[in-house]
Amino acid sequence: MDSYATLNLYTGVRDSEGQWEVTLFAKNIFDEEVVLNSSAGPQTTNLSTLRFGPGGTIVGSASSAFASPYYSVNVLQEREIGLTLRVGFGAR
């Protein structure tokens, strides 16, 4: 995996008594597209089947492995820009 860097910025203002706060943020400023990790092969899972008898009791079960055609890939989140406003109501 290649090395990478991201730039996140945060700035804000708050009143002296802490009753309100406004924050502006930007994550992944340059919108880097990075694969963080991926699976070496297809994902596998177990499929279980239960057999029920009279009264809903389990009378048997079977399990088998299932290989899916899907691979697991985790990527860096895309650019996100937002504004947060917090306001305190009542006495502190």
Describe this structure in words.
It comes from Steroidobacter agaridevorans. This is TonB-dependent receptor. Its main location: membrane. It is found in: Cell outer membrane. One of its GO terms (cellular component) is cell outer membrane. It contains no helices and 7 strands. The chain has 2 domains: 1-34 and 76-92; 41-71, no CATH class. It is an all-beta fold and 92 residues long. The strands form 3 sheets. It has a 3-stranded antiparallel beta sheet with strand order 1-2-7, with no helix packed on it. Helices cover 0% and strands 52% of the residues.
Topology (elements, then pairings):
Elements: E1 9-14, E2 20-27, E3 35-38, E4 44-52, E5 58-67, E6 73-75, E7 80-87
Antiparallel strand pairs: 1-2, 2-7, 3-6, 4-5
Quick tags:
mainly beta, 0% helix, 92 residues, 2 domains, 52% strand
Task: State the gist of this model.
This protein has 92 residues and is mainly beta. The protein has strands at residues 9-14, 20-27, 35-38, 44-52, 58-67, 73-75, 80-87.
